[in-house]
Amino acid sequence: MNTAEVREIIARHPEPEGRVAAILEEIQKKYRHLPEEALRIVSGELGVSLTRLYGVATFYAAFSLEPKGEHLISICHGTACHVKGAKNLAERWEREVGIKEGQTTADGMFTLEAVRCLGCCSLAPVFSIDGKTYGGVKPDQVPEVLGEWKGGGGR
Known about the structure:
Blueprint: H1 3-11, H2 19-31, H3 36-46, H4 50-59, E1 71-76, H5 79-83, H6 86-97, E2 103-104, E3 110-115, E4 126-129, E5 132-135, H7 142-150
Parallel strand pairs: 1-3
Antiparallel strand pairs: 1-4, 2-3, 4-5
């Protein structure tokens, strides 16, 4: 983590309203998580307690204190997706990337996460990779989708 980069991020957000969230969002995007050292710098520069920053970081699901993979695979487990086979889809993803939901691959390439709803119920079962939504995908199609992302063509 680069201390100067964190200070530059802080400097880009002079507005008083929403400043903390905007800074944390940019740090998260840069480092794929909120490093403790970055939170300490933000705390010192803004005069906001570390406790408050941790409160914000742990309240919002978009923030993570643990490093995330380069690509975030979000599997919907909402009611419609559950009924349409989300469990089987999740199990196939786990086998293909070699991790469980909530984990990141050792090479830092993929993080697999369970989410409550992606808001695409009519497409169930649904998952997304870096915000790109896939609906109606069967578990046996997962290797093909994964291959696209490993090859850099999934974006």
